[in-house]
Amino acid sequence: MAKGHRSQIKRERNAQKDTRPSAKLSYARMSVQKACFVLDAIRGKDVKTALAIVMYNPRYASSVIEKLLKSAIANAENNNGMKVDDLYVEECYANKGPTMKRIHPRAQGRAYRIEKRMSHITIVLNER
């Protein structure tokens, strides 16, 4: 068990908090695998290049990730006072979310299960 007063424990926990600008989208209606195709393309790139890649990528995930990347850039600019020219995509990943289970009727009274997967997508930026 932790020692010290409750407020002291909270203060210590908040001191260890990650200060890098980020944006998170929960319950995105796409599978992790499909989101990772786009995320792998922008990981480690500077923000302007990443936006260009995402804008001209034909996948559905790229439109969602473009919006998320713009949100992360705005967070860096407004909340942390960082310059857009110095930013790059340090981390981006997709975690598995809940799965909606649906039934598809088939021949002779059978039913096949359709799994509509969701994901939680996170983008973390940093300055060079």
Q: In words, what does this structure look like?
A:
By secondary structure, the chain is an alpha+beta fold. It has one domain: Ribosomal Protein L22, Chain A, CATH 3.90.470. 38% of the residues lie in helices and 34% in strands. The chain is built from four helices and three strands; from the N terminus they run αβαααββ. Strands 1-3-2 form a three-stranded antiparallel sheet. The termini are far apart. The mean pLDDT is 91. InterPro entries: Ribosomal_uL22 (IPR001063), Ribosomal_uL22_bac/chlpt-type (IPR005727), Ribosomal_uL22_bac/org-type (IPR047867), Ribosomal_uL22_CS (IPR018260), Ribosomal_uL22_sf (IPR036394). Belongs to the universal ribosomal protein uL22 family. Part of the 50S ribosomal subunit. One of its GO terms (molecular function) is structural constituent of ribosome.
Domain count, please report it.
1
Q: Termini distance?
A: 39 Å
Q: State which percent range the strand residues make up.
A: 25-35%
Residue-averaged pLDDT: 91
Major sheet strand order:
1-3-2
Low-confidence stretches: none
Order of helices and strands: HEHHHEE
How many strands?
3
What would a concise description of this structure say?
With 128 residues, this protein is an alpha+beta fold.
Set out the fold topology.
Elements: H1 6-15, E1 22-28, H2 32-42, H3 47-55, H4 60-78, E2 87-105, E3 111-127
Antiparallel strand pairs: 1-3, 2-3
Helix pairs in contact: 3-4
